[in-house]
Sequence to fold (107 residues):
Amino acid sequence: MWPVEKGYRDVWKIISGYTGQILYRIDEKDYQASFDNLSVSSIYYPEIGGYNGDPEIIVEFAFPKNGSMKRGYISYDAVIEEGYAVKVNSWINYIHQTSRFMYPVQT
Fold:
């Protein structure tokens, strides 16, 4: 996931840690679970010859096989520098793996 500061590090400032969880329902009862992994890193882009320095949020999780209303969220607090007006630019790339080994990769 790209947080709002990606590409706008001089304008946006993240003022809290990233958090989130998985939510789902089984037999009319609501459940919540933590992510298996939530980390922030800079991704290597071979097409530009290295790291671009912008943060990217990496989240690993698994939904339960049974259940309904499966969803999740990531949240954080951010402020914009005074005097700036920019759009919120945030993206999510999601891969749904349907088997232990998946080739070619499907999105």
